[in-house]
Design a protein that fits this description.
mainly alpha; Peroxidase, domain 1; Peroxidase, domain 2; 2 domains; two-stranded antiparallel sheet; 4% strand; globular
């Protein structure tokens, strides 16, 4: 039996997470998901005997599962909870920054911490330099979480898992749903800048957005659901001021943007890099208001409003369902986050548990390296 004892760990807020996750600890085998990333990495040099033994051991390596660190780092959920709550005390956007990092990580090369790697000329062509990551923030928060985790469980927990777990904690602390986070990802030793450059853009049509999600096995429902993360956080004005006048060379504003809201936004946008709330009603709370805003033509980005306003789109009904039921949205959000979090790097991607999330380990480090 698996026990988590919050009294051995860190402070009163631990109880919140403990209460949230305890009921699920003895259940949810359905959440144990297969991770083709590691299962595809068996060395071709293994003898048959070793291969058989390796296959017997494989489940612990080859699957993401919520109990991955139960014995090696039992305090992990509480450490993450405490560091994310601390970050939120000084930064209203900490939660938004963390979940966006996880999304950008998973959509470039799978969820492997690659988004966090800084440029090293000739070695790492950083994803942070790809245009969609321009202005991405929150690496300092990840550093703090990693430092706290390393001091309790050195060399055990991957940066990719820290992103996945801290995203869930960030959503919970902002009033949103809890879900069981499958764990056991490894960090890549490479970055994939080209893939990062292909992240969805706020100027793309719904068809393009849908096809970019479909390329990862994510449906229209997943697209609408995950876009619901724009219930908190901010966007810089440069991503939506093109909707104010002469939208798509029509000589007119975007007709799907509420006129009064457009003028409010125009006032708020002092400079192209001014940051404006995604959700004008409850800017830092994770709730269903994003969808109600779309119904009221108050989606901030073109890519947001298209989900509701594209004629004949299957996404409109999904927006309406979530606008009507926060419970439905919350349940689906957990499901879609697990689906996104299960995206794995291509087979053969060299990986490890990184000691510093921004840099690959020195090549002599063998700790937890995956062959
Ligand atoms: C559907 C395609 C998506 C597009 C086109 C898109 C685009 C954007 C843009 C342009 C920004 C503003 C960036 C800036 O000003 O620097 C942003 C922010 C944000 N995005 Fe998305 N996004 C998408 C999907 C998602 C998903 C799937 C998530 C998470 C599950 C997410 C979470 C966020 C959050 C929380 C912020 C605010 C970050 C902050 O305040 O620092 N987005 N997104």
């Amino acid at each position: 039996m698996i026990t988590l004892n919050p009294s051995t760990t860190c402070g009163p807020s631990s109880w919140l997470l403990y209460k949230l996750i305890k009921p699920h600890l003895s259940t949810s085998p359905q959440l144990i998901l297969t991770n083709p990333k590691t299962s595809a990495m068996a060395s071709p040099k293994l003898t048959p005997f070793v291969a058989v033994v390796a296959l017997m051991l494989a489940p612990s390596l080859a699957q993401l599962n919520p109990f991955f660190y139960t014995f090696t780092c039992p305090q992990l959920p509480f450490i993450v909870l405490n560091t994310v709550s601390q970050a939120l005390q000084t930064d209203d956007r900490a939660a938004a920054k963390l979940i966006r990092l996880h999304f950008h990580d998973c959509f470039a090369n799978g969820c492997d911490g690659s988004v966090l790697l800084e440029d090293v000329p000739g070695v790492i062509d950083s994803e942070l330099n790809a245009p969609p990551n321009n202005g991405i923030q929150g690496l300092d928060i990840v550093d703090n979480i990693k430092a706290a985790v390393e001091s309790s469980c050195p060399g055990i927990v991957s940066c990719a898992d820290i992103l996945a777990l801290s995203s869930q904690v960030a959503v919970v602390l902002s009033g949103g749903p809890a879900w069981i986070v499958p764990l056991g990802r490894k960090d890549s030793r490479i970055a994939n800048r080209a893939a990062a450059a292909n992240l969805p853009s706020p100027f793309e049509t719904l068809d393009v957005l849908k096809s970019k999600f479909a390329a990862f096995g994510l449906s229209s429902t997943d697209l609408v659901t995950l876009s619901g993360a724009h219930t908190f956080g901010r966007s810089r004005c440069l991503f939506f001021t093109g909707r104010f006048d002469n939208f798509n060379n029509t000589g007119l504003p975007d007709p799907t943007l509420d006129a009064a809201y457009r003028e409010q936004l125009r006032q708020l946008c002092a400079t192209p890099v001014t940051r404006v709330n995604f959700d004008p009603t409850t800017p830092d709370t994770f709730d269903k208001n994003y969808y109600v805003n779309l119904q009221n033509h108050k989606g901030l980005l073109q890519s947001d409003q298209e989900l509701f306003s594209t004629p004949g789109a299957d996404t409109t009904a999904i927006v309406n369902r979530f606008a009507a039921s926060q419970l439905l949205f919350f349940i689906q959000f957990g499901n879609s986050m697990i689906k996104m979090g299960n995206l794995s790097p291509p087979p053969g991607t060299p990986s490890e548990v990184r000691l510093n999330c921004r840099r690959i380990n020195p090549s002599t480090t063998t700790l937890h390296d995956v062959i």
